[in-house]
Design a protein that fits this description.
Length: 220
């Protein structure tokens, strides 16, 4: 009983902080995306490739959630993003308050797109909105097609799924339809973008989705 009440309070506090983040990024005309997945789905590799494609024209910031290391922040900084690292010291998700603190370390007036790379985890990030415009799931085909049914909350709270590592489908003896059917069974409306961050296949559609989001933000 006590635990349930406490969790509710934590989530309510998080919603207030998320709303503050949302307003701040709206005022700065930033398009922001929370990237969520299990560990090893290829989020950081997708970000690296995205930076290679977009940094010439856009200022991109990344808030990196990592349990202990700064490795991913170093990787995206090397590709031209400004990065702020949040070390969760063992905690398994980011919350809106820590992301709000990270926003304070960035020059928001000089940012076009902001990515939050959430902690690799398919359970609690679903419940903790960070105040980004969009939430995106990355699902590596190597994880198997049963993930959406096992962790439906994650897929229901996102607008887009990047199905990554599609170059490995033939090796795995699987079809893209195995994944799209499983995703649609838990969220019929979700947009599915099949990509390979390794070969670059499908990545143009992702870049266009980001650019469209930024245009919509600027037209508000
Ligand atoms: Mg990573
Ligand atoms: Zn957690």
């Amino acid at each position: 009983m006590i635990k349930v009440t406490l969790m509710k309070k934590v989530l309510e506090g998080n919603e207030d902080a998320a709303e503050a983040n949302r307003q701040r990024m709206k005022d700065a005309r930033i398009f922001s995306v929370d990237m969520m997945s299990s560990p090893g789905s290829g989020k950081t590799t997708i970000l690296e490739r995205t930076l290679d494609a977009l940094v010439a024209d856009l200022n991109i910031a990344v808030v990196q959630g990592d349990v202990y290391t700064t490795r991913d922040a170093e990787r995206v900084e090397a590709r031209g993003a400004r990065a702020v690292q949040i070390n969760t010291e063992g905690a398994c998700h980011l919350d809106a308050t820590v992301v709000g603190e990270a926003l304070g370390d960035l020059d928001l007036s000089d940012t076009d797109i902001l990515f939050v790379e959430n902690v690799g985890n398919l359970i609690c990030p679903a419940g903790f909105e960070l105040g980004t415009d969009q939430r995106v799931m990355v699902l590596g085909v190597t994880e198997g097609s049963d993930k959406p049914e096992k962790y439906p909350a994650m897929f229901r709270r996102c607008s887009v799924v990047l199905v990554n590592k599609i170059d490995l489908l033939p090796v795995l003896g699987m079809d893209l339809a195995d994944f799209t059917d499983a995703i649609r069974s838990v969220n019929p409306e979700i947009e599915i973008l099949p990509v390979s961050a390794l070969t670059g296949e499908g990545m143009e559609a992702w870049y266009q989705w980001l650019k469209d989001g930024l245009i919509a933000r600027r037209e508000e």
